[in-house]
Amino acid sequence: MWVAMGRQGKAYLSGLVAVLLWSTVASAFKLSLRRLDFIQLLCYSSMASTILLGAILAARGRLGDVRGLTGRQYARALLLGALNPFLYYLILFRAYELLPAQMAQPLNYTWAIALALLSVPLLRQRLGWREIAAGAVGYFGVIVISTKGDLATFRTESPLGVGLALGSAVIWAVYWIVNTKDERDPVTVLFLNFLFGLPLVVAACAVFSSLRVSDPLALLGAAYVGIVEMGVAFVLWLTALRLSDRTAKVGYLIFLAPFLSLVFIRRLVGETILLSTVVGLALIVVALLLQRTSGRPDRIEVGAGDRGAPT
């Protein structure tokens, strides 16, 4: 089937499979956190992802790319590894511990809105009216989700959880901005980040949690998170973008992910999906679409399709 397909057909198939896989990871986070604490989940999922990414590079004959780098490049890898996987997933997984998956997932999805706002002080870009409107619509969606639609009292289930979910989005936006001018193979860059970030993760687990896990199912869940969220889906998405004659043709597929994710959350985690979640998520997606159609040549691309699906 793959051989018989055209280039654009392969792009669509790769993109759809990546979206489908990303749609499952919010549920995988929540189910895994029933057996592991958030630091243990980060530790063992990072190990799985590092091994997988290294294997992918070896299969491509590009493992040698990680050798012979300058001291500055190694220092950069350490800095980026501290952001992702260490800090980003540490905060994100803690948010999933505190919040229902149906709340944490769309709140983290606001990373592209945060990216547009951060591009002003960090990249000295200007915001057009579409970006400003997108920010207003998107963060109104955040309010709807975090208050469960109770806009009168403005009470949230877990202010800390909401803050952490939004904070993870900001961290990913910063990570993305730092990576904007890196023209190296993205899989190689990601492997280096995980390779240098892994010692930080393991040290945090040893000091603040425990490296000992007695439940094999817990390790299976962590392996799934590392292999799918941090590895296979990412590579498939890059493949789809590379094969497509226009990025936008597959880029918009990513907007299916948060809604498909709600289906898995309902089926696998057992959460009752609230109307406020659907409405708030719809507002966030509208905001992201508004950003993607701004058409301004001086802005960086901040659509969710350029990174993949935050979870």
Brief summary:
With 311 residues, this protein is mainly α.
Note the quaternary state here: single chain
Number of domains: 1
Number of helices: 12
How confident overall, as mean pLDDT? 88
Classify the beta-strand content into a percent band: under 5%
Report the biggest beta sheet as strand number plus sense, adding barrel if it closes: none
The helix-strand sequence is: HHHHHHHHHHHH
Structural class: mainly alpha
Ranges where pLDDT stays below 50 over 5 or more residues in a row are 296-309
Rounded Rg: 19 Å
Q: Termini separation (Å)?
A: 30 Å
Total strand segments: 0
Shape: globular
Helix content: over 70%
Task: Kindly describe this structure.
With 311 residues, this protein is mainly alpha-helical. It has one domain (7-306). It is 72% helix and 0% strand. It has twelve helices and no strands. It has helices at 7-32, 38-59, 71-98, 101-108, 111-123, 129-146, 159-179, 186-208, 216-243, 247-251, 257-269, 275-292.
Topology (elements, then pairings):
Layout: H1 7-32, H2 38-59, H3 71-98, H4 101-108, H5 111-123, H6 129-146, H7 159-179, H8 186-208, H9 216-243, H10 247-251, H11 257-269, H12 275-292
